[in-house]
Amino acid sequence: SRSGTATVTVVDGENRSQPDATVRVREGGRTIDRGETEADGRYETARLERGDYEVVVVKPGYLEASVPVTVGDGGEARVAVERGATTLDVRVFDDHFDPPVPIETGAVRASSSVFDGRVSVTDGPASLTVPVNAVYTVAVVKNGYDATS
Fold this sequence. Notes:
149 residues, mainly beta, Immunoglobulin-like, 2 domains, 4-stranded antiparallel β-sheet, 3-stranded mixed β-sheet
């Protein structure tokens, strides 16, 4: 047969299976297959032409990782992902004024599927350390203002 599949297993630094990681199979810079790992941390590719590909894995809270994989009879790739964080700086302005005026008191709340945190706003940007590769909702909390994100 000229086609085959490969099984991708995603684990963390402690060798624990990682469910719900997004797996992309790439060839020449193009994504040709995409899916999510199951509860056991495994994803089986679609039937693809035999050959060598790149597997890219991303999961909220973890750094993106990539490894080569060969599709054929029972090709396998094991991808270890590691936790990562970054600094999120938020500046808050009241756009009721022209030009907008910085808001220098209150709080900023950032939340995602893997994080929920709050920090006070005091003279300048509010800074939070947040997990990487997640989509965040950022809301301003201040008396006299409606919560907005």
